[in-house]
Amino acid sequence: MNIEYALQTDYTYIVEKDRHIHQGMVEPKIKEKEIYILWEGEARIGWMRYGYFWDNMPFMNMIWLEEPYRGHGLGRLVVQHWENEMKQKGFDIVMTSTQSDEQAQHFYRKMGYVDAGALLLDTQPLEVILIKRI
Fold first, then answer.
1. Could you tell me the pTM of the whole model?
2. What is the Cα–Cα distance from 71 to 76, expressed in whole angstroms?
3. N-acetyltransferase domain location, by residue (predicted)?
4. How many CB atoms lie within 10 A of CB 130?
């Protein structure tokens, strides 16, 4: 698997697959190198995108892999790749979140993330906020 910054040529893939981002935000995130594309040979097999909480703390918004590639440690590799990049940029804490009814919370805890709070919205399960010192 290769991890590369998303390019303009990845735009259609991202907007077709990622239903959790406003379409108008995709181009700016590509330009700011805040989306990674995961490749297996010539095929895109997933993505990871992030932003900044309070404009100063890296926050992983989403990691997603095509179904056949899940459960093989690739998610761990892209998270470690991102954490290493954030550390090189001078950050010492990273964040993410997941809904309390999702299995991802267990993945993040195994990766060293700890609960730091929660957000409750009217229409969704509790959103668990997790942080990690890197």
1. 0.93
2. 10
3. 1-134
4. 21
Residues forming a β-bridge with 96: 60, 130
What DSSP letter does each residue of 31-65 carry, written as one string?
Answer: HTT-EEEEEETTEEEEEEEEEEETTTEEEEEEEEE
Other beta carbons within 10 angstroms of residue 54's beta carbon come to: 7
- Please report, for residues 26, 27, 67, 81, the alpha-carbon distance to residue 22 in angstroms, rounded to integers and kept in the order given: 7, 10, 23, 25
Q: Which two tokens stand for residue 27?
A: 């181009």
Q: What is the pLDDT of residue 121?
A: 87
Domain count, the chain: 1
Q: Which domain holds residue 104?
A: 2-133
Per-block mean pLDDT, blocks of 10 residues, the chain (134 long): 97 94 96 98 97 97 95 96 98 96 92 97 92 98
Least Cα distance to 96 among 121, 132, 59 occurs for: 59
Extract the tokens encoding 60.
């992983």
Q: What torsion do the CA atoms of 50, 51, 52, 54 make, to the nearest 10 degrees?
A: -130
Q: The domain that contains 101 carries what CATH number?
A: 3.40.630.30
